[in-house]
Design a protein that fits this description.
The chain contains 23 helices and 14 strands. By secondary structure, it is α/β, with parallel strands linked by helices. It has four domains: 104 residues, 3-Layer(aba) Sandwich (Rossmann fold); 96 residues, DNA polymerase, domain 1; 50 residues, Orthogonal Bundle (DNA polymerase, domain 1); 170 residues, 2-Layer Sandwich (Beta Polymerase, domain 2). Bound molecules: cytidine-5'-triphosphate and manganese (II) ion (2 copies).
Length: 511
């Protein structure tokens, strides 16, 4: 800091022959706005009176004396020295005005530090270090399955769901992003202060959160939850094979539930027929134990028709969920090409065993040449894949869920018609939704990443790729628009690396 020539001067000044009479004190005089010669003079003066005055700043300094500087200026200088980003209240150094020094010189001993001696430093906003670290894309963050803010995220997700029912995707995603940020927080939100500097919290989300924090619930959320439209849309889109458009049309025609569809003899496609038929079973969450039983079945089926094929559990269960709405599998074979036409063989085998209640297979329609970058974001469903409903025999685990189901059936009542062609309540099997996907080996890493979810995590990955990296990510490939080439990857880790992202393991992709 001090030019060499001047330092020499101050070194001659610093002959330490004056004895130190106040060993608990270690003073540093700030040269800033004071100048070298005055500083040298004050240093000589202090030392002659037995004060310890240091030439350089170090952590042993107890008093910093300055002239014509504000407290904030001295604090800023100090932060610069210590490389600290303030806020550190542990540092106990006194920031003093020159008056304390001159009064002490007059008194011949250090005078008691009083308010008028102390430089005032504006308190820094109390920024939560976790909030500071919160990145704005969900794929940059770790989101565990279990978090501390369900009381807020459940509410925001109801609004997200409702926006989806109203075909307002932008609004829905905004609520989901807000909820996702709260899922990544390492603590429970206690006040609006906790939300300061968090990304993705729009004005509307903040209003809802504030109301819940203050009143325990949000009127908007509660009235949405109770609304006829929300409940009907939930019931109707809950039918396998029914999307928002169809449900909305039915709602506007006055239909509210699967029973209404039967009663009014609605035209249903094959998927929707199965959806209505197995509605109650498919409403019941699939347990991990049931998913494991189905894994065994799928493995048996796949190995019976293609030995050497590899099967991986995907979706929510790969992220560590204990229940899901279905079970997802990804299938491949290390010898590229062997997987072609595999799905019909698997479904035939399953059908022969009487294990399928419904299935619809779509063949692989992905062609890199044609589907290339321009269409990449839309080709999530271009693999050979199968939406199915399995007939799962009750095992020890699923017996329990069957008995709770019977209770539910009784309580909702009036389901006789729907149940007449379904299995009886005492039945020893249940219907379970299963998704099967077949991927060529060379695309397996992309398919794995794309089918692990969560849906928001996937969406954010693609947004990150496009907006931040000029790349286009799908479940098939990663295309670099700047280099005009496809980036090959054998593992998920490599894909994260291409995207310049820290690897997030599946259990922390619960955005
Ligand atoms: N997926 C997809 N294309 C679809 C449907 C789903 O690529 N048409 C992907 C989603 O991106 C998701 C994964 O498949 O990552 C699993 O989807 P889904 O089974 O709907 O959700 P889960 O996360 O498994 O949740 P749940 O437990 O409710 O099944
Ligand atoms: Mn799933
Ligand atoms: Mn699925």
């Amino acid at each position: 800091m001090i030019p060499l020539k001047r330092r020499k001067v101050s070194l001659t000044v610093s002959q330490q022959n004056d004895t130190c009479r106040f060993p608990h004190l270690s003073i540093f005089i700030l040269e800033r706005k004071m100048g070298t010669s005055r500083r040298a003079f004050l240093t000589r003066l202090g030392r002659s009176k037995g004060f310890r005055i240091k030439e350089t700043y170090s952590s042993s300094i107890t008093h910093i004396v300055s002239e014509n500087n504000s407290g904030d200026e001295v604090q800023a200088w100090l932060d610069n020295q210590t490389g600290r980003d303030t806020n550190d209240t542990s540092s106990s150094v006194c920031l003093l005005d020159i008056r304390w020094f001159t009064e002490s010189m007059e008194a011949g001993h250090p005078v008691t530090v009083q308010d008028r001696h102390t430089l005032q430093v504006k308190p820094k906003p109390n920024i939560d270090p976790n909030a500071m670290l919160m990145k704005s894309y969900a794929c940059q963050r770790r989101t565990p399955l279990k978090h501390h803010n369900s009381f807020l995220t459940d509410a925001l997700e109801i609004l997200a769901q409702n926006a989806e029912y109203n075909d307002n995707e932008g609004r829905s995603v905004a609520f989901r992003r807000a909820a996702s940020v709260l899922k990544a927080l390492p603590h429970r939100v206690k006040s609006m202060e906790d939300l300061r500097s968090l990304p993705c919290l729009g004005e509307h989300s903040q209003r809802v959160i504030k109301e819940i924090l203050e009143d325990g619930s949000s009127r908007e959320v509660e009235s949405t939850r109770r609304s006829e439209q929300y409940q009907a849309m939930k019931a109707l889109t809950g039918i396998f094979g029914v999307g928002v458009r169809t449900a909305d049309r039915w709602f506007r025609e006055g239909l509210r539930s699967p029973d209404d569809l039967i009663r009014t003899g609605q035209q249903l496609n094959r998927a929707q027929q199965a959806g209505v038929q197995y509605y109650d079973d498919l409403q019941k969450p699939v347990t991990k134990a049931e998913a494991d039983v189905i894994s065994d079945i799928v493995e048996k089926a796949v190995h019976a028709v293609l030995p050497g094929a590899e099967i991986q559990l995907m979706g929510g269960f790969r992220r560590g969920k204990e229940v899901g709405h279905d079970v997802d599998f990804l299938i491949t074979h290390p010898e590229e090409g062997k997987e072609e036409g595999l799905m019909p063989k698997i479904t035939n085998w399953l059908e022969e065993q009487g294990l399928l209640l419904y299935q619809k297979t779509t063949r692989n329609s992905y062609l890199e040449k044609m589907d290339g970058p321009a269409r990449a974001p839309n080709n999530m469903d271009r693999f050979e894949r199968c939406f199915s409903i399995f007939k799962l025999q009750a095992s020890a685990e699923s017996c329990t869920s069957n008995s709770t189901a019977s209770v539910q059936d009784v309580s909702t009542g009036s389901e006789t018609e729907r149940h007449s062609d379904q299995h009886s309540e005492a039945s020893d099997w249940r219907a379970v939704r299963v998704d099967l996907v077949v991927s060529p080996y060379s695309q397996f890493a992309f398919a794995t990443l794309g089918w692990t979810g969560s849906k928001l995590f996937e969406r954010e990955l693609r947004r990150w790729a496009g907006q931040e990296k000029h790349m286009s990510l799908s479940s098939h490939a990663l295309y670099d628009s700047k280099q005009n080439l496809y980036l090959r990857a054998k593992t998920e880790e490599e894909i994260f690396a291409y995207l310049g992202l820290e690897f997030i393991p599946p259990s922390e992709r619960n955005a």
